[in-house]
């Protein structure tokens, strides 16, 4: 497994890989890997000749009062885990390497960022688009892999690729969970023991909400009551929208999503389903 830290090193590797007629899959991450990231690598290995994992805590997607400085980082551990699942290249640039100069050109996520996490994190998804656009161009990847836990991010990236005719296919990975149902997240390490036990109720609340929705009942208030009773966290939002449009208009798939703020960790989770198939 190669560890590349500069744009030029990556471009040289991509050039040689493409010259050999090989396909490339990219798994963009901010590191502190868990089974969710590794499952994306495994999926990428099945569909591509080579797999690049980026490990880059992207400052462009953090607001001024968010956790950029204390976001968990452990590159040595990440390298060991990535190697075990067959990653061919880790691209781990510095901030200066990725953003060597200020740019007056901006990408904005538009109305897709006005709901769910985007409503409370202005500019966050603009920063996501900035980094994935650079990664897509630098790696010239055939396919990119993102987990459905970050469903709003996934919808926005799919829209970017469709709207601007990127020559890359976006592949969805299922949310990977702990045995008790908690969605895997790098931020789970911030939870206290009590909060960790409470956090398993996020998925239970979603399951309650899905059952109520399928019975044509409003799921939001019962979900609020359930989470208020079973957790000490502050509910940021609970929303039910069409997916991937992220509008109130429901045609096929639905996303039932929530965010809960604990003392040091903001957790998100969702269920995506087609009501006609349930």
TrEMBL record:
Pathway: Cofactor biosynthesis; (R)-pantothenate biosynthesis; (R)-pantothenate from (R)-pantoate and beta-alanine: step 1/1. Keywords: ATP-binding, Cytoplasm, Ligase, Nucleotide-binding, Pantothenate biosynthesis. The active site is at residue 37. ATP binds at residues 30-37, 147-150, 176, 184-187. InterPro entries: Cyt_trans-like (IPR004821), Pantoate_ligase (IPR003721), Pantoate_ligase_C (IPR042176), Rossmann-like_a/b/a_fold (IPR014729). It is found in: Cytoplasm. Catalyzes the condensation of pantoate with beta-alanine in an ATP-dependent reaction via a pantoyl-adenylate intermediate. Homodimer. This is Pantothenate synthetase. The lineage of its organism: Bacteria, Bacillati, Bacillota, Bacilli, Bacillales.
């Amino acid at each position: 497994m190669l560890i590349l830290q500069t744009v030029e090193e990556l471009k040289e590797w991509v050039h040689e890989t493409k010259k050999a007629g090989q396909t490339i899959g990219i798994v963009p991450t901010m590191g502190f890997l868990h089974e969710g990231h590794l499952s994306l690598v495994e999926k990428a290995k099945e569909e591509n000749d080579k797999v690049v994992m980026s490990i880059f805590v992207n400052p462009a997607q953090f607001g001024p009062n968010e956790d950029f400085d204390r976001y968990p980082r452990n590159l040595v551990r990440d390298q060991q885990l990535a190697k075990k699942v067959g990653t061919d290249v880790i691209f781990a640039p510095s901030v200066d390497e990725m953003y060597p100069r200020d740019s007056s050109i901006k990408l904005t996520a538009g109305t897709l960022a006005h709901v769910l996490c985007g409503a409370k994190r202005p500019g966050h998804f603009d920063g996501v688009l900035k980094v994935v656009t650079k990664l897509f161009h630098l790696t010239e990847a055939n396919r990119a892999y993102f987990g459905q836990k970050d469903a709003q991010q996934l919808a926005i990236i799919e829209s970017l690729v469709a709207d601007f005719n990127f020559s890359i296919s976006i592949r969805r990975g299922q949310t990977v969970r702990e045995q008790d149902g908690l969605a895997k997240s790098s931020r789970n390490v911030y939870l206290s023991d009590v909060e960790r036990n409470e956090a398993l109720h996020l998925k239970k609340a979603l399951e309650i909400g899905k059952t109520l929705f399928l019975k044509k009942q409003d799921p939001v208030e019962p979900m609020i009551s359930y989470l208020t009773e079973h957790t000490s966290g502050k509910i940021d939002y609970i929303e039910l929208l069409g997916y991937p449009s992220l509008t109130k208009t429901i045609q096929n798939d639905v996303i039932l999503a929530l965010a809960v703020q604990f003392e040091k960790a903001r957790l998100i989770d969702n269920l995506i389903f087609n009501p006609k198939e349930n």
